Amino acid sequence: MILDIKAKHGTLTYDVITINMARPPPDFKRLANRLPVLKHNDEILVDNDEILQYIDEHFPFPSLKYDNMTAHSVCLDVFAKFSYYIKQVSHGPEALLKELQAVNDYLETNTNKFMCRDELCHLDCLMLPKFQHIRVAAKAFKDFEIPDDMVGLWKYLKMAYENDTFRKTCSSDQEIVHEWESKAGIPPLSESKKKIYTMDGYVEPQFSMNVPDVVSTNGE
Asked: Pfam families of this UniProt entry (predicted)?
């Protein structure tokens, strides 16, 4: 998302190359042994924080930095609680729901379109893909759905679903489920769900981007 935002303003061009880590090509293995990887001229980076810092230093416009520590704080533990839940470290969704509720409560009092302002910032680029993983993977593996009454969170997701950068970079439901299915501790999919989330090339990619009826069409 960050690269796409910067590219829209003409400060960089980029290519995304997908890698099958089960059979990585020799060219990739010479560069790194894990994803993601940023290669720019002779520079090769594999640490997420270093990649972010490098992009900001070399392509500073537009600035995606933020200083809203309230928004930052409510997002800190959401993904960790989701990971505990989906990997069955915690058996119930209560801890995840508590974190989602905190985010929702913040968003319901937020007057901006996104977390910190009316444009996407670093925090949005970090959290929106994570919320999409929570939405898709929790439903696939745990039959968990974000409650309809978390209107602030759903309005936030609706803004993302209407945003070209998010839509362009969002992984399909099948890709998200496939990624989590390969992790240790994840419960197996039922046979019916295996058919839904199959990576068979003949099946059209799915993207969960609908929102509950309680979220009005104009986002008000």
From this structure: GST_N_3 (PF13417)
